[in-house]
Amino acid sequence: MELYSQIFESIPNIFTLTNVMWLLLGISIGTFFGLMPGLAGPQALALLLPLTYSLDVVSGLFILMGVAGSATCAGSITGILLGIPGTPVNAATVIDGFPLAKQGKAGMAIGAAGTSSGLGGIMGAIVLTILLPFGFSVILKFSYAEFFMLALVGICAMSLATGTSFIKGIISSLVGILLATVGYDPILSYARYNFGVLYLWDGFSVLTLMIGLFAVTEALELLVKKEKSDSDFSIEVVGVVEGIKQTFKHYRDVIRSSIIGILVGIMPGVGGSLAQFLAYGTTVASAKDKSKFGKGDIRGVIGAESSNNAKDGGSLIPALLFGIPGSIDTAILLGAFMIHGITPGLTLLQKNPEVIFTILWALVAATIASVLISFFAGPYLVKLTRVKGPIIGVGVIVLSILGTYGSSNMFGDLIVIVIVGFLGYFMKKHNYSRSSLIVGFLLGGITEANLRLGIFTYGWYGFFTRPIALVILVIGIIMIGYNVYSMRKGRALT
Amino acid sequence: MKYNKYLNDREILNVLLIAIAVLLVATSFTYAGRVGVGAILYPVIIGLALMVSVVIQMVKDLKGEAKYHFKISEGEKKILIIVALSFAYILLIKYVNYILLLPVYIVMLLSLTGEINVKTKIILTLTLTIFCYIVFYRLLSITYIY
Predict the structure, then answer these.
(1) Which residues of chain A make contact with B62, given a CB cutoff of 8 A?
(2) What is the ipTM score, two decimals?
(3) Of the four listed, A9, A281, A356, B63, which is most buried by Cβ atoms within 10 Å?
(4) Which pLDDT tens digits describe chain A residue by residue (494 residues)?
(5) CA distance to A95, A106, A302, A378, per residue, from A296 (Å)
(6) Rounded to whole angstroms, how far apart are CA atoms B86 and B76?
(7) Are A402 and B98 an interchain contact pair (Cβ–Cβ within 8 Å)?
């Protein structure tokens, strides 16, 4: 209860003029990245991480949450008007959104997408607020075995969810874990795997890896990709208000899809792509008249959009409580925590509650602001997609190099981001998941420390005799088994 | 089953991963032996798991060999040049001020794309250089990179 009252008491301290400005900056950048096909929230987050280094944690989180809360909403505008999803999680919106735009109902689709996305985001934040205090009591029962199992399940789930092949996902995660072993041994503090290179003594920086894998890799692609948009910008956008009305008319679809989004978000590594299609699928299944789906049915847009913002709130639950990222956005957010020396879990809840309040309020504010932007400026902003890829690519690569140095002052980081960016290109080309690598890197240290401390404290059998650890293991096996089954089924269908 | 005469980029990636895994395991035995048995466990598990996974992937790749014809595309050649250019820029800024070299780097990157006209190149180069000068040189006080 005390936590709930603190949440509202924190508003004046959090929403200072400076923080609001940082939030607006994050929203502007997130909107831009969301609108541009090929770019998405993670690239913007990775690029902005160095900037947060020089800020206090609250201001830094305001920028990052501004990006996280706005990119998805902006991506729906590109999807509806151009038929190209602005971000991967807007793919299901295109199914009905683009046909609606072709029928001259782009405004209605944008209005419905924005409203349902906003409502979903707010529902996600409410659930996050309600569940956090309960999670607090759960954490107290956790020991080495439970944290190890949770991190292991998180790594396996992410390996399955983000790539087309389980083996490739596992390889990516293992490379991430391997990179995390460079530096000091977490238990004995013995320097290892540095091969006499001074730069490697402290290990790799999560910031450097993220910038290399996301920002530099995408910049390399943008620089060489020849892609001309054949979009029709003459589409008239009217009827935004009608879209808002339609969303409230189909409130059941909003609630159902938001719940799906939140549940999928809570599960580590399942990802927003599944949430949107699951929500879209259930919207179709529950509709009496299914004839218009795929040809321009507003319920399709509402179903898909309600889920993709709701999952942000859901994915923050395992991230804040256990340090297990539910999505790549939250993985980058955890990276920001590491930069600022904040440890998720019990310490975060006890020592830095302001971080949680900031995340909550920034998420709500960013969602509302990005919905308003999509209503009033969306159709005009979409013209930004006319900017040529190479122009953005040059900007991203230059800012990545200088931004990395600005945050770490280490020359070696510059070499690493270029190498990692180059490797990231081949990983992307051959469907190796970059997100799995980052999650492996983030959770590698947690798994190693908890495995070794667990064995030292209660031996091997402790991992299989402690009830909570066993429950996590069983849930993990069911989740992984289900994912493998779906993957095989999907492959058989194609 | 037909085998390619030369290693392709996918095979190079796989071989590289196996080499890294072997190196990890081998190095673990040298350092961990000195600090205790517990320390050897985790890296060796990871190294072995990586080796096994990559071998499985290589077998899967060999089965589908006919589907993958390796050819360096025009885009990939450009990526190699961009990476080389970036390394050159990074190594040179140790000796020459990074802001002074920045316009040259940007122009060279833009020249590679071939899609942008001269006017846009000039505007973009100037804008980006001035932006970086204000943000990094003046605001963040990064006067040298070394």
Answers:
(1) none
(2) 0.88
(3) A356
(4) 566 677 777 777 777 888 888 888 888 888 888 777 666 777 788 878 877 777 888 888 888 888 887 887 887 887 787 766 666 677 778 778 888 887 878 888 888 888 888 888 888 888 887 877 777 677 777 788 888 888 888 788 777 765 567 788 888 889 999 888 888 888 877 778 888 888 888 888 877 888 888 788 888 888 877 655 444 444 455 677 888 888 888 888 888 888 888 877 776 655 556 677 778 877 877 777 777 777 788 888 888 888 877 877 778 888 887 777 767 777 887 887 777 777 777 777 777 777 777 788 888 888 888 888 877 776 676 666 667 778 888 888 888 888 888 777 788 889 999 999 999 888 888 888 887 888 788 888 888 888 888 888 888 888 888 888 888 888 888 877 776 776 666 655 44
(5) 8, 10, 12, 20
(6) 15
(7) yes
Kindly report the nearest CA distance between residue A191 and chain B, in angstroms: 9
Distance CA A72, CA A69 (A): 7
Inter-chain CB proximity B50 and A167 less than 8 Å: no
Q: Is the pTM of this model over 0.80?
A: no
CA–CA separation, A121 and A397 (whole Å): 32
Measured between CB atoms, which of B53, B76, B86 is closest to A418? B86
Contact A190 B50 (CB under 8 A): no
Which of B46, B119, B142 is the best substitution to test chain A (most A C-beta atoms within 10 A)? B46
Is the Cα dihedral B130, B132, B135, B138 positive or negative?
negative
Q: What phi and psi values does residue A421 have, to the nearest 5 degrees? A: -60, -40
Please indicate whether, in this complex, the C-beta atoms of B140 and A390 are within 8 angstroms of each other.
no
